[in-house]
Each structure stands twice: as C-alpha cells, then as structure tokens.
Amino acid sequence: MVHDYTGDAYPAAQSGGTYMRADPHIIDEVKWMGFDIVSVANNHSLDYMYGGLFKTKEHLDKAGLPHAGTGKDLAEARAPTYMETPKGRVALIAAASSFAPFGHAGAARRDMQGRPGLNPMRYDTWYTVSEGTMRKLKEFYGDLQKELRFPEVYQPEDAFHLLRNKFVVGEETGVHTKPNKADVDGNLESIREAVRQADWVLFSLHSHEGLVDDSERPAEFIEEFARAAIDAGAHAVLGHGHHAMRGIEIRGGRPIFYSLGNFIFQNQTVQKMPSDFYERYSLDPYSGTPSDAYDARMKPQKRPGAPESKWFADDQKYWISVVPHMDFEGDGLKELRLHPIELGQEKPRSQRGRPKFAKGELADKILEIMTIVAL
C-alpha cells in the first residue's frame, strides 16, 4: 500500500505477514516502468486499516493511475476500472481470496452504509473421510459434549461439522474447496459489465491457496472460478499471491495465469514495523529495529499446534518468474511469449528483489517450470 504513516493509517491487529507500505513517490517509478493500470486487492490491502486503504487510493488517483479491487463499499471494490489506449479500452476487475477476516468490503443497503475493504473471492472448504473415520469423529464429538458440555449444533444430512470444520464421507479422502456463490455471481456480473463497456477485459486474482499435497497447484476453487471468468468474457485471468509460479491454462483461446510469481519482492527493507510484528517473533515490542525482526523470522519458529517453520522465502522459486507478452488476433490469443526474470536471491537485503532478465541455464529452468496446458 502507498502512504506515509500519517493520518488514519493505523497498523491493523492482523496483517498479511509483513506490514507492507511504500512511499507515495514509488507510484511515479511504477508508471515509469510501464504499468498503466493496477490491482490493489491483496492480503496487504488493510495492513494499515481503512486509513491506509483510502490514502493508497488517494495517491493513485492523484497520480492518474487507474486501480481496481478496493473501495468504500463492496460495489465500489468490485467495479471495473477502465483505461483508454490506442488499441481500445481496457477494463480491470480485481479480487482476492487471501485476506484478514475483517478485510473484505461490505455491501451498502438503503438504510445502512457499506463497509470499506477489498473485493473478496471467498471459498468453502470440506474434508472427505472414510465411514470409519466419520464414526470416530462423531464419537469424539459425543465425548466433548459429555466432558466439556459442548452444545448441540445443527448437522445437515450430507455432512458433519466439528470445531468449524466440515466433513463428508467419500471414497477418496482429501481436502476440497469451492468458490463462494455470492462472490462468483458478483464478480461474473462485473466481468459481463466490462465486456459491454470495454474492448479488453482483464481479471486479477490474488490467491495464496494451493492443494494441500501440492502447493504448486492452485486450489480447486481458483481453477473453477478462473474458468468461469474466461467463459464470462475475460480475455485473461492474472493470478498472483502465491509468490511462486504456477501453470498456465489456455481456455477457449484465452490465458489463465494461475500465478505469475513475484515481479518485485522487497519485504525486507520496509522501514517501520508495528509492535505486533516484533511480538510475532518473540522480540521486545517496544525496542529493537526492523532488521532485528527480519533476522528473527529467518530462524525456525515454534508455535503451539503448528509445525516448525521459518520465513518461507528461502527457496529459489520465490526469486524467479516470467513476464508474459500476449498478442491477440481478434478476441483470441495468437501468441504468448514468456520472458524469464530473476530477482537476485543471492544479493544482500538492500539489493535483492529487483527484477532483471534471467539468462542461460536459469532462464531455461524458469521456462521449464511454467507448464502450459490448453483446455
């Protein structure tokens, strides 16, 4: 997000990880790099609450950079933004599936204003288990009721709910997801509106979620919605958020980029962090410096009920990516070129995270990772 820590830009109690922020002058550099239209819907949209959200929009408007994905209420957050070009009018709709619980915008009513936030793409999750496991879950729940006086809850015929998790009986055990119907309907409506109002329609989806046993594959709900977006008229779905590359699907002559990875990755040089960030890494929240916290999160973290882990970005996959170049003929994709880039993983903190073209074996490796499938 873009602001100068002033006004109502207070740090939220929860963030998307690093409390992300950039100085307003960075917008001019982004424009200089060739970015003409941007998404602001992601898990950092409300790192500095509504003040940071509105300051970001204010600075983007002042710089003349069209943006989509957040707003004073759900209608504004979900609305397309437009840009005029010599090749026609471009529309962008932006949404996120990864965000803090308070982050999504709320709809206005005739008797109540809406809630500021981002355009959500929520999803439902359920676990498929065997009949034997289901019996054990129900027995366990019965014990909890007896010993801890757990209340009776409504249980539908086709599923069993335990501790806010949904379980169903199935032949193959696993975890499944499906996009929220209201969010699907609302976003497809925005796409159809943009199709009638613009020559080119792009949909940006910020999603961290992947398959439980293969995080390099997008979660089921992402694939389902992305295909529906193309079918509704989007010329491309631009996925990001996972920080690493995922595959590309060509559907009806139009591309779905399930994750383009990082283009700029500089979350170790943010100048200030709130006390909550220091507490997360068992540091004194009232002293120390951001570098202390950045160093601490590189070490293995032990949290009750969670596997031991350290900061995710040690892996090379977070420091390589591609820049796609799409050529369309009519409404269909004629040519797709992928330019491999690397972000300087081996460089010191002050320099890493800046993109440059990859060469040689590394470039070949990047292109091999990015699988393209036509359906």
What does this structure look like?
A hairpin with a 2-residue loop joins strand 4 (81-85) and strand 5. The mean pLDDT is 94. This protein has 9 helices and 20 strands. The chain has helices at 26-32, 49-63, 74-78, 131-148, 181-197, 220-231, 275-280, 290-296, 360-369; strands spanning 38-39, 67-68, 70-71, 81-85, 88-96, 117-118, 123-129, 160-162, 165-169, 174-179, 200-207, 210-211, 214-218, 236-241, 248-251, 254-257, 320-329, 332-342, 356-357, 372-374. It has a domain at 124-176. It has 375 residues and is an alpha/beta fold. The chain is 26% helix and 26% strand. The strands form 6 sheets. The protein has a 7-stranded mixed sheet with strand order 4-5-11-14-16-15-20. The longest helix has 18 residues, at 131-148.
Unreliable spans:
none
The geometry reads as globular
Strand order of the largest sheet: 4-5-11-14-16-15-20
- End-to-end separation: 36 Å
Assembly category: single chain
Rg is 22 Å
Largest sheet: 7 strands, mixed
Query: What proportion of the residues is helical, as a percent range?
Result: 25-40%
* Mean pLDDT, all residues: 94
Topology as H/E string? Answer: HEHEEHEEEEHEEEHEEEHEEEHHEEEHE
How much of the residues is beta strand, in percent? 25-35%
Number of helices: 9
Number of distinct beta strands: 20
Structural class per helix/strand content?
Answer: alpha/beta
